[in-house]
Amino acid sequence: MTESRGGTPKAAGPVSGAREPEAQEPEPVTEEPHHLGEPGEAFGHSPFYIGFTGGLGVLLAIWLGQQVLEIGSILVLIVVAMFLAAGLNPLVEWLMSRGLRRPWAVVSVIALVLAGLALFGAAIVPVISEQVASLTRNAPEWLDRLQENDRIQGWNEEFALIDRAKDYIAEGAYTERLFGGFLGFGLAVLSALLNVFIVVVLTLYFLASLPTTKSALYQLAPASRRDRVTRLGDRVLAGVGGYVSGAFVVAVSAGLSSLVFLFVVGLGQYAVALSFVVALLSLIPMVGATIAMVLVSAIGFAESVPTGIACLIFYAVYQQVENYLIYPNVMRRAVDVPGSVTVIAALIGAALLGVVGALMAVPTAAAILLLTREVFVRRQNAR
Question: What is the chain's mean pLDDT, rounded?
Fold first, then answer.
């Protein structure tokens, strides 16, 4: 090493005469040939993956279907409560048009409904119970009168139908047998009362929160179609509300006319109970009035032949008046459903959900027809 002028040692240079090592070039890498062929493109999903995923989807769908069936009765109560809330909403809006704010209008309707239920329970239920008991007491006598007919007497001698019916009524336990004994009857009554309480509470909640619920549901639609969805939804709800109000008017008309007729014809001791049954049956479209006619006429014939004939004539005439005068005028603004569709909808609803399905069949059919005309038919016409 040598020192620089500043005293810093300097690195020694290369020794003279020494040769630097030459850089060796890398040997070329030779790729071995693929003796088993070139690999193809990778599969998106293997058949095993697709089958396993599809199987899991089927099992999940079956499990969800079973859970829906388990809570089917609760879903029916919820649907009934929503149906009644939509039916009471026109009354709330009518009170709002008279200057009441919606909370006070809802409270007024709730108070009116509760007062009506309390009045019905205090005044009508005891009368109906007494008249049903009277019908039960008089049933054996009516069966004796039926035996005067030669054909019915022959059937009774062959099959002992009337004797069995007499024994069944005389024992007085047919109601308990129907529900599985005394304990079963008590549980059935408690279950019915609980269902009524649940429906009333849910109806009041849905009625109070109906605008908020509608707004939340309409927000799920795309913004470009939200206005149209809102208009269609409001139209459907208005139709349901109008149908419920109209059905109530039709039922009251049938009940009051039956009450007056039964007092005139001499069945006053059963008038309240039978009028209530006729009013309930008139809620079932198309076939309810026929069932009421058969029921009341059978009791009329058991009382006397002229009374039975009078019942047949009255209810046959009233059914025509209701079908062609009362029902169309009341329901014209609410629903626009052809008669054939009404019958088909009522039959399908009754087969699916019983009486509840029959009651909700007509507004449901009206909503489906409205959506079909406004969405599907207009789209087809635009093509």
Answer: 75
